[in-house]
């Protein structure tokens, strides 16, 4: 059975994706295809490259990558992602989708035409940077002749690249939490958050199984000091859902075999 998984954006909360993938590994659930956006693109790319969830957690918990974000006080944004290329190159030495263990599609928003673009071949580092490029906070990332920003701007839980899969899992790690303050930073974050989750209720219907750990609503997208806690939340929540997930997968697989062997398909009444 081809199992596809979509990993949403959510800033630092994206670390919860790794906890969920760890629970899947322990249950011997093998992912066939990944589609990631923003933080989900980062977590998904590392996992697709063969790095174990706990090892990825250890790397990001050290905050090594944060030093590579250099200030760029130009009109088009505050921070520049250019130096993150150095650290990504260590983990993706070939900088190519073709070298990954698991196929992954990365979604980013192309600014000029306002369209969602899927990357799944050629260089991988630039698409990772583009997909996680939060507007206003970071300068747009240029790929070819176009400029890109965070894929979650248009679709924070893509399903289309997984349409060929037999079973699809949607993982949304950015549920709406309580707004504690009203300063400029918090209002900006909440505004972007509201836009990013607006289509989630509709998107979740497209997946065979949907995962959204409610406890993640208690964390901030900038909570880089609480990565281990968020990883644990994702892990425990997914572990709790494993029996239900396996049951749903078995049901879908049985139906698929019947349709394949007998040419029978369920028709609406």
Short account of what is shown:
This protein is of the alpha/beta class. The chain has helices spanning about 15-25, 40-50, 55-60, 85-90, 125-130, 185-195, 200-205, 225-260; strands spanning about 5, 35, 70-75, 75-80, 105-110, 115-120, 140-145, 145-150, 165-170, 210.
Overall description:
This protein has helices at 16-26, 39-48, 53-61, 84-91, 125-131, 184-197, 200-203, 227-262, and strands spanning 3-7, 33-37, 70-74, 77-80, 104-110, 115-119, 141-143, 146-150, 167-171, 209-211. The protein is an alpha/beta fold and 269 residues long. Strands 1, 2, 5, 6, 7, 8, 9 and 10 form an eight-stranded mixed β-sheet that branches. The chain has a two-stranded antiparallel sheet with strand order 3-4. It is globular. The model is unreliable at 69-77 (pLDDT under 50).
Any descriptors?
two-stranded antiparallel ribbon, eight-stranded mixed sheet, single chain, alpha/beta, 10 strands, 269 residues
SSE topology:
Elements: E1 3-7, H1 16-26, E2 33-37, H2 39-48, H3 53-61, E3 70-74, E4 77-80, H4 84-91, E5 104-110, E6 115-119, H5 125-131, E7 141-143, E8 146-150, E9 167-171, H6 184-197, H7 200-203, E10 209-211, H8 227-262
Parallel strand pairs: 1-2, 1-9, 2-5, 9-10
Antiparallel strand pairs: 3-4, 5-6, 5-8, 7-8
Helix pairs in contact: 1-3, 1-8
Averaged pLDDT: 87
Instruction: Give the tally of β-strands.
Output: 10
Order of helices and strands: EHEHHEEHEEHEEEHHEH
With helices defined by DSSP (H or I, 4 residues minimum), what is the helix count?
A: 8
| Uncertain stretches of 5 or more adjacent residues | 69-77
The separation of the N and C termini measures 28 Å
